[in-house]
């Protein structure tokens, strides 16, 4: 499959340039993709960001070099992009549990993060319903947290954010401030290639509402995916299928910008609870 070959070309480029400064735009071009779409695809397929993959691979290779040669710690640190031995030692200890100098000891236990290899997984056992929607710009109000995708922290933080919002009345007050509108979960500020993002609990509203932050949602073409089942498991599975199955088999890619989850009123723990995922798309 063409997308599989392109992702492997991107991995080849990362590995060839592993000791150099990584240019995400160049890597994305190897996959014939926009930087945003490539990074979202990579994260959803592997569970880690491109930056985290590069970081882990550098520390794996650095450990191998220290264990098998007499190279100075300073030289290895500089080779793999660390500005000081202190910064390298801190990252090395976090990855391997020992210092760089201890990696030279006979029998030292080191951790290896292998090169990623993408493989085609034939699915097709379950249909994937979707529709394409053109929607103009609109305004939303709500509250948000900043979280990180590093080691999947965003999944933990977002689930906890919803639990707090339901427990302390935030979700109820928001529904009252935007009567007749569904609650939204909105991911924003993902375009800069960092591992941080903002996650909003919000609702569409053109009115000023005291005590709420406001967010402008730009006009876009959206792929909308219905989701049925208890939260958050059902919607997390839908996100995985969008990137693992839908994008690779269609002529679309992620347009960048916000991603939206639409939560109608109802029992979110019910087996028949229905919600939606909205992803901005462009034709490749």
UniProtKB/TrEMBL annotation:
Keyword Transcription: yes
Keywords of the record: DNA-binding, Transcription, Transcription regulation
HTH araC/xylS-type domain sequence ranges: 8-106
Domain of life: Bacteria
Entry GO MF terms: DNA-binding transcription factor activity; sequence-specific DNA binding
SUPFAM superfamilies according to UniProt: Homeodomain-like (SSF46689), Probable bacterial effector-binding domain (SSF55136)
InterPro entries, per the entry: AraC_E-bd, Cass2, Homeodomain-like_sf, HTH_AraC, HTH_AraC-typ_CS, MarA-like, Reg_factor_effector_dom_sf, Tscrpt_reg_AraC-type_HTH
Keyword hit for Transcription regulation: yes
Pfam families the UniProt entry points to: Cass2, HTH_18
Protein name listed in UniProt: AraC family transcriptional regulator
């Amino acid at each position: 499959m063409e997308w599989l070959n392109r992702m492997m070309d991107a991995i080849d480029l990362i590995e060839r340039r592993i000791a150099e400064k990584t240019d995400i735009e160049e890597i994305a071009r190897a996959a014939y993709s926009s930087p945003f779409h490539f990074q979202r695809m990579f994260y959803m397929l592997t569970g880690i960001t491109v930056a985290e993959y590069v970081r882990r691979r550098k520390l794996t290779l650095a450990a191998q070099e220290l264990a098998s040669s007499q190279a100075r710690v300073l030289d290895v640190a500089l080779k793999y992009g660390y500005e000081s031995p202190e910064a390298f030692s801190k990252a090395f200890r976090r990855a391997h549990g020992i210092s760089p100098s201890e990696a030279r000891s006979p029998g030292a236990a080191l951790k290896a993060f292998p090169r990623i290899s993408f493989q085609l997984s034939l699915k097709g056992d379950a249909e994937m319903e979707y529709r394409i929607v053109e929607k103009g710009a609109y305004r939303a109000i709500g509250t948000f947290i900043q979280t990180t995708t590093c080691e999947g922290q965003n999944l933990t933080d977002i689930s906890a954010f919803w639990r707090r919002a339901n427990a302390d009345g935030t979700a109820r007050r928001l529904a009252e401030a935007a009567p007749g509108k569904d609650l939204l979960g909105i991911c924003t500020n993902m375009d800069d290639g960092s591992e941080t993002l903002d996650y909003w609990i919000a609702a569409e509203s053109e009115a000023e509402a005291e005590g709420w932050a406001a967010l402008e949602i730009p006009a876009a073409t959206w792929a909308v995916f219905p989701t049925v089942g208890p939260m958050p498991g059902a919607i997390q599975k839908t996100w995985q299928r969008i990137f693992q199955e839908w994008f690779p088999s269609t002529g679309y890619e992620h347009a960048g910008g916000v991603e939206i989850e639409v939560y109608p009123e109802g029992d979110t723990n019910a087996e028949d609870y229905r919600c939606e995922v909205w992803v901005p798309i462009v034709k490749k």
